[in-house]
Prior knowledge:
Helix content: 55-70%
Amino acid sequence: MSRLQKKKPHGEKKRRSTSKELDNDSTGSSGSSNSKPATVTSSKKAILEKNSTDVASGEPNVFQKAVEFVREVKVELKKVTWPTRKQTTGTTIVVIIFVFVVSAFLGLFDLGLSKLVQVVLT
C-alpha cells in the first residue's frame, strides 16, 4: 500500500545547505548568534563519511560501495508515491486496449500494402 507523506508547514521547509554552511554546522560555529547546537543529519553524515576516507586506504571496496548503494536505494524508494491497485489495474487495461488497437491498425495497413505490392508486381 502507498504511504502518504505529511507535508510540513511552510515555516519548517528544509533548505539546501551550501558547503560553507555544512562546514560551519559540522564544527558547531555558524555565523548567527541564535544558532542551534550542531546536529549531523543523514545527508551531512554521508558527506562527512565520504570526506573522512583515509588517503592511504584509497577508495572504499566494492562491498562497501554496494552496501551504500542499497542504503541510498532504500531512501529513494521511501520517497516514491506508489499508485493504488485500482490505478494500476486501470492503466494496465488502457495499455492492453491501446496495444490491440494499434496492432489491428498496423495489421490492416500491412495487409493493404502487401496487396498493393502484389498488384504492382503482377
